[in-house]
């Protein structure tokens, strides 16, 4: 059997010395919770089942495909350190494990992590055997019925229903090992400034620094052409530099990043000691600016109309895990083929490979947190910690132009009247702004917003004349109550922000259970296209609305309001959809 998901899992920061640990692992349910007391973590107990990592046991591609509740699961495998890792520190990485994870190597606890959508890693060098096999054991706990746990669209009942889908438990993104020097560059953060034609770089170095002659060299190229080089002494764990990008023609925006021209600069980092390279990594960045000028959403200093699609990021056989890198790229290509310029990844912190393809092919992304369903102090602690990790992981991707920490009051269901929930939502807004001052933040996408940079409205009205009337003026737009929800709460009001309709449409075709609120059903291809035109045209022609997000890219399980079927077959010719999207 070929290795599942063999591609490099962290495409924004690449090293040569790595090994993919996906594939067949031993696996067991621990419904009786006896694994810890029985010392399974010691690695001496064989587990009774087999699973294909990185697919969760609920998915078909895992080789198991059982959707019942099993809150505690265990994984075990042996691994021999490659010869190429000799003399290096060894880092063990997990792309995502839902929800709480503990990791042992040769019986030694090396990592714990809470949060189902964000990565974690551990330096396991001291736990490794000298030349022999190493036993890696993972325990994952995912409380399937806990409504205070950030879960996104994973349902807390056994069978999927309505807009809620099959759960994902345990490992669901790539597991891999990486070899690094004793002192190495752990991460970088980019701050592009298109107005000054400069790239700001914050480099973070781990390992011993004091008393060593360390320098960091950054070499920047564009389409193979040399642009700039910077060499700086490393005296601290964080170093900052600003580099002028010569030859940038800003008049034609020739080297800026946009969906039309997704230009990327390549950058190579070398950490040197006494002039000798000890660490090397390659990366990329895009020169891209997002701003709000006089109430207009701007990309690279020019007004930009957002034509997004809601993308749940689910797959028929992999659930939350894409079956292949080709499948990820295909989703991006299909989205662009319909004339859309972006996607709102919905209730999922998406696989970094998706963001890579959006960077490379040119597709705008709204980054969104997977929310919980109800509010408590424990929920607040959980989502705050995990959201910080998500923003940090994805900060460098030029494709991301906005952050959405909360959607439709999920996790804050009483925000209309509960001052604590209002303050929590406001805190999430300000927390996000403190982590990233370069992108707009939507405090609560859809309705019941507090302070927000974008006025994001969800409106599943299907009648063209109602939409035309509702979005004919700013006053009528901001005073509407789609779904009978107030658009602002807690004393907050519309303050001139760009107005966007960030969920609408949801036309069910070809067969539908959606006959109630917010969704309409089409009877045939012509009816579907007519209904699609009836909801898109009023927003595109409105002088008030500055962008939209259509629901949704694909069918997902029983929810069949996609432009594509669940297995990515267009329901109508893509060019017909593009004609509607492109029309003014």
The poorly predicted ranges are: 511-518
- Major sheet attributes: 7 strands, parallel
Helix-strand makeup class:
alpha+beta
Helix content: 10-25%
Number of strands: 30
What proportion strand?
Answer: 25-35%
Number of helices in the DSSP assignment: 8
Cross-sheet strand order for the largest sheet = 27-26-25-24-30-29-28
- Shape assignment: globular
Straight-line distance between termini: 50 Å
| Integer average pLDDT | 95
User: Whole-number radius of gyration?
Assistant: 24 Å
Verbal overview:
- There is one protein chain.
- By secondary structure, the chain is an alpha+beta fold.
- It contains eight helices and 30 strands.
- A hairpin with a 2-residue loop joins strand 19 (265-273) and strand 20.
């Amino acid at each position: 059997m070929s290795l599942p998901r063999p591609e490099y899992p962290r495409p924004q920061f690449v090293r040569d010395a790595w090994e993919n640990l996906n594939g067949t692992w031993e696996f067991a349910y621990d419904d009786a919770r006896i694994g810890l007391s029985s010392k399974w973590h010691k690695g001496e107990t064989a587990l009774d089942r087999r699973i294909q990592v990185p697919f969760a046991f609920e998915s078909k591609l895992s080789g198991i495909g059982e959707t019942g509740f099993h809150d505690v699961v265990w994984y075990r495998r042996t691994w021999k350190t490659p010869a190429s890792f000799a003399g290096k520190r060894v880092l063990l990485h997990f792309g995502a494990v839902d929800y709480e994870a503990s990791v042992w190597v040769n019986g030694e606890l090396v990592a714990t992590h809470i949060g189902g959508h964000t990565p974690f890693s551990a330096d396991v060098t001291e736990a490794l055997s000298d030349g022999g096999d190493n036993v890696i054991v993972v325990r994952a706990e995912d409380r399937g019925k806990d409504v205070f746990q950030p879960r996104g669209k994973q349902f807390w009942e056994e069978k999927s229903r309505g807009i809620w889908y099959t759960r994902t438990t345990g490992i669901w993104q790539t597991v891999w090992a990486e070899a690094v020097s004793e002192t190495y560059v752990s991460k970088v953060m980019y701050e592009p400034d298109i107005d000054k034609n400069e790239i700001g770089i914050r480099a973070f170095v781990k390992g011993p620094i004091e008393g060593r002659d360390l320098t960091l060299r950054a070499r920047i190229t564009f389409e193979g052409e040399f642009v700039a080089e910077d060499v700086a002494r490393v005296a601290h764990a964080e170093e900052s530099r600003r580099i002028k990008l010569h030859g940038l023609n800003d008049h034609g925006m020739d080297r800026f990043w946009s969906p039309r021209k997704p230009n990327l600069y390549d950058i190579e980092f070398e950490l040197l000691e006494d002039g000798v390279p000890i660490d090397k990594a390659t990366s990329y960045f895009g020169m891209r600016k997002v701003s709000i000028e006089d109430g207009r959403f701007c990309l690279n200093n020019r007004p930009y109309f957002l034509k997004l699609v809601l993308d749940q990021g689910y797959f028929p056989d992999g659930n939350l895990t894409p079956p292949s890198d080709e499948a990820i790229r295909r989703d991006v290509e299909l989205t662009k083929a319909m004339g859309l310029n972006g996607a709102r990844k919905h209730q999922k912190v998406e696989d970094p490979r998706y963001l890579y393809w959006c960077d490379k092919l040119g597709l705008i992304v709204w980054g969104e947190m997977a929310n919980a369903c109800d509010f408590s102090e424990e929920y607040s602690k959980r989502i705050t910690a995990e959201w910080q990790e998500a923003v940090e992981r994805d900060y460098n991707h030029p494709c991301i132009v906005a952050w959405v920490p909360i959607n439709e009051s999920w996790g804050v269901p009483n925000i209309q009247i509960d001052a604590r929930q209002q303050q929590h939502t406001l805190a999430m807004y300000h927390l996000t702004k403190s982590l990233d001052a370069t992108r707009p933040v939507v405090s609560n996408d859809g309705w019941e917003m507090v302070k927000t940079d974008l006025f994001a409205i969800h409106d599943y009205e299907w009648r063209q004349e109602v939409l035309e009337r509702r979005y004919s003026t700013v006053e009528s737009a901001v005073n509407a109550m789609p779904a009978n929800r107030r658009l602002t709460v807690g004393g907050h009001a519309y303050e001139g922000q760009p107005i966007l309709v960030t969920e609408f449409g949801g036309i069910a075709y070809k067969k539908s259970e959606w006959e109630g609120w917010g969704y309409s059903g089409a009877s045939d291809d012509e009816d579907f296209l007519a209904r699609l035109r009836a909801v898109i045209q009023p927003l595109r022609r409105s002088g008030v609305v500055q962008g939209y997000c259509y629901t949704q890219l694909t069918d997902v399980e029983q929810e069949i309001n996609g432009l594509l079927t669940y297995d990515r077959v267009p329901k109508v010719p893509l060019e017909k959809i593009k004609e509607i999207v492109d029309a003014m």
